[in-house]
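Internal tracking record. Fields below are filled automatically when a chain is submitted to the structure queue. Please do not edit lines marked as system-generated. If the sequence contains nonstandard residues, flag them in the REMARKS field before resubmitting.
Queue: standard
Priority: normal
Entity type: single polypeptide chain
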Amino acid sequence: MDGRRSDTKERIRTVAMELFSERGYEKTSLREIAERLGVTKAALYYHFRTKEDIVVSLSDDLRRGIDDIVDWAERTPPGHERAEQILRRYSALLHSLGRDMVRFWHENQPAFRDLGFGAGLRYQFRALADLMTGPDAATLDVYHARQALLAISWSLSMMGDLDLTDDQMHTAATDIAVDILARIAWPSAGNVLPPSREVRHHRS
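SYSTEM-GENERATED OUTPUT FOLLOWS
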């Protein structure tokens, strides 16, 4: 029973993201989500009372995934290898969430702001970039770290019109990000990055 409920919940989230991407968040109703799923609105209510609840669920997946990357990075010596692994783990996270989720994230910023997630996600994004550079990194190095992360998220959100599979898009975006990463001047092995625990679930 629990497995079937979990599958239904995941189908709801997938279909909602498809509709949000096609029609926009504001123009999509729960009724339309239920109709595409082929279920009653009451059945949809069993899992999600509002479309905001759907977005909260998906956003929580993204934030928890970034938290996991931060946990791993803080236990790993700084340097090129850690920075590249942060990129690859971030890329794998977005790939697992799906292209529609990433597109929604970029195309519906007002909805994210209204729900209180925009600032928290930006904070986490910057925390990842900080973990990819040294404690006293040059501003240009921080810029390149952020651009490497953006190369992944923007590629997945803005290139959906190209005749590429999700796997091809994922691989190409990651390769480009790694190329950008090569521009960063790495700290010596003995340097330690400052803690960034306050990244967790920051929504303000």
